Amino acid sequence: MISVNIPIKGKVEHFPMLPACEYDGSQAPGTPCWDEDEDAPQGAFNHAEVMAAIEKTEDWMRSHPNIGFTGSYIQFLKIVNMLMMTPEGQEPDLKYFHVPNTEFIANNMDVYGDPEDPEWVPNANEIVTGFNGLLEANTNAGDLDSFVAKGWNEGVIMGFVNTMDPVKTHQTAKDIQQWFVNNKDEPGFDLVTWGFKSGDVVHMPESGKTIQIEDSGTTTMSVGGFLGATEATHDVAEVEYIKSPLVTALAIFIIAALIFGSPLIAAILTSTLLVTLFGQYGLGAYFTSVENWSGNLHFATLVSLSIAMGLGVDYGIYMISRLKEEMAVTGGKWKESLQNTLETTGAAVFASIVVLLASFIPLLMTQLANTWALGIFISEALIIDVVIALTIIPLLVYIFKPKYVFGDKK
Q1: Could you tell me the CA-to-CA distances from 221 to 155, 177, 200, 281 in Å, in that order?
Q2: By CB neighbour count within 10 A (0-12 exposed, 13-18 middle, 19+ buried), where does 379 fall?
Q3: For the residues of 272-323, what is the DSSP string, one character each?
Q4: Burial of 117: CB neighbours in 10 Å, binned 0-12, 13-18, 19+
Q5: Which end of the chain is less packed: N or C, by CB atoms within 10 Å?
Q6: Torsion region of 295: left, alpha or beta (phi above 0 gives left; psi -120 to 50 gives alpha)
Q7: Which long-range contacts (CB under 8 A, 24 or more apart) does 122-129 make?
């Protein structure tokens, strides 16, 4: 399962979270402050409509086909409401397993109302605040901290996504983001900030540190937890799987052209690397098609691309360099030069591949998904590289006859 977290924080305009008033003369005159005895409790989690919005969100998440268990402070509050509101002498009724917001109270005045004063309607915020105080006083230290901060203005909804399918996890993240777009003006939803956005400044009270999220120019709400991290790495990997190989190929072309003094040799080496690259893409696509998420194209297998391309160009350089030497020794006799190259450098390349493949066997036997994937992708690349080095590269050299190998003889 993949975790998903949605941070919640009261907006400053609705919940300014003023410092407590000091009456010992240490507070500057006219400084806004919060009087515990005179003012209403601070914090978004003391507001019934905010609690109802969290409940609505959590209910929606549980109904989503790709989301299983969820948890938040709301579960504590709903349990207390159920226990306190079930009529005396009766078993706890799930009918009252609900946030006591204004609407719910109005629909259940038989338990919330006062028989002696039929006109009286209790204040939903006061009920929520009372239950918060009851929970704070009757739970162990730290029991509530995972879901709501001590200042009652920040909290989190935690859930678990029950699929590893990258297509479904991506859609789940988009669905969560769209949920908050659709409900942004609903009661309670508009009083708090859901998740973080690009460019937000995040204060970490426990460590005293302040972190600014990188500004990517987007306004989409970020989803936390492993789901958010997975989505972020997918987005990065999608770009890097195109950019990284192109940059590697460009670097190889420039370096090879400088080493051999031949753009044609550099082009031959770079073009053959594309075969290895597309072989890697194809392997990742195959694993995706069979729903093997350890071997699909994700951030952990990205490193295999550059390694595979590097190995491929190494063996190509060995073969071309030896072909040049043999052509000089044999006086430009291609068949004899190719035979000598394959018998010497070709044999060495083949032996090197066998040894490297054997060294990757332990990686293929591991239970670690990323390590296994690296072993699979590099092993595939080694096999492609040796075939290209021993067959395709000599063929291309013979067809295009670069001056570096053939000299002035064509």
Answers
A1: 16, 6, 11, 31
A2: buried
A3: HHHHHHHHHHHHHHHHHHTT-TTSSS-GGGHHHHHHHHHHHHHHHHHHHHHH
A4: exposed
A5: C
A6: alpha
A7: 124/48, 124/49, 124/100, 125/40, 125/46, 125/47, 125/48, 127/48, 127/81, 127/100, 128/45, 128/46, 128/47, 128/48, 128/51, 128/77, 128/99, 128/100, 129/40, 129/41, 129/46
The amino acid at residue 20 is A
Structure tokens at 132: 């918060």
Cα distance between residue 230 and residue 26, in whole Å: 49
Residue with tokens 């009661």: 187
Nearest-Å Rg of the Cα atoms of the chain is: 33
Scanning the structure block, which residue is given the tokens 């987005």?
235
Determine how β-strand 209-212 pairs with β-strand 2-10.
unpaired
Residue range 327-336, pLDDT digits in tens: 989 988 999 9
Q: Give me the residue label for tokens 């397993």.
A: 97
At 335-378, the pLDDT tens digits run 999 999 988 888 888 888 888 888 878 877 877 777 888 888 88
**E strand residue ranges, 11-168:** 67-71, 154-161
